Amino acid sequence: MTLPPYPIGTPGQPWGPAEVAAWRARVVRQRSYADDVLAALEPLRQAFDISEYGALVYDGERFPLLAVRSRGWRDDLPTLVITGGVHGYETSGVHGALQFLSDHGTETAGQANLLAVPCVSPWAYERVQRWNPDALDPNRNFRPHSPAGESAALVALLAPLHGRTRLHIDLHETTDSDEGEFRPALAARDGEAFVPDTVPDGFYLVDDADRPQPAFQQAVIEAVARVTHIAPPDAHGLIIGCPLQSPGVISYAVTRKGLCAAITAARFSTTTEVYPDSPRTTPQQCLDAQVAAVRAAIAYALSAPD
Asked: Which spans of this chain does the record mark as coiled coil (predicted)?
């Protein structure tokens, strides 16, 4: 079947500034970062230290970037990092991180330092988008001097923790809009042909192919399986075109591709992928799956011998 071309750009030609501007003009605000995230963080100030680690200004609008730290930070304790909302449209990543902080964030007090950034990409969160306003994917740009402001700010925040972090878990979703909008837009932006794929029905994890941690990944999968279903492979034995390391876990070049979970070079790291469009789950189950993944990852990381 021949698919219609993406409505912006000329097939086979990468986008220039005019096409990026045309794409940005189609994007509309659908929700409020201030109401959904900043307001939700206010009650947490009673138990955590919350600070602004940067700000993004787009079209005259300022988005403060906030980090949540456990109170009584000690350099002799292991450090745990949680990130969400790298892709703004992945709702349970943001609200799963907030739910974890609210319900379980102080459980490791005195045992570990906790640093959480619930919403890395606030402009994209408001517009339910994968990219930032410059049509850049933050999750391919986590490196120093990144062209994506969201990525550069987070890299700078976490730089002092590089090589000193016990755990980094990055909370994501895979949605039907990946195939319906975001992957077609990516192909058009890069002047490439769009090749359709299937959307996995269920939760899965992304491990770093260059630093595999199979026992850790499986401990997280086992915990999440008690909350929601785990994605099976497609007819080719793959999930989103990647080989399975084990049931519910794929291997991907996380570090080489500049993905968020690699920023800290943590001893244990993973990227969660929730599927909110499944008829077999609910929005609350998606949040609960993210929380279960975080708690299981923390339990494993803190129980591992030094």
From this structure: none
- The reply to whether the predicted model has a pTM over 0.85 is yes
3-state SS of the chain: helix, strand, coil percent to 5?
35, 20, 45
Q: Which residues pair with 178 in a beta bridge?
A: none
Cβ-based neighbours of 47, under 8 Å, separated by 6 or more = 71, 105, 106
DSSP one-letter string for 212-260: --HHHHHHHHHHHTTTSPBPPP-TTSEETTEEEEETTEEEE-TTTTT-G
Tell whether 3 is covered by a domain: no
Positions annotated as catalytic residues are 273
Give 237's strand partners.
none
Whether the CB-CB separation of 41 and 11 falls below 8 Å is answered with no
In a domain, 6, yes or no: no
Tell me whether residue 30 is in a domain. Answer: yes
Average pLDDT score over residue span 183-190: 97
Structural domain of residue 124, as residue ranges? 17-303
CATH code of 294's domain: 3.40.630.10
Tell me if 5 is assigned to some domain: no
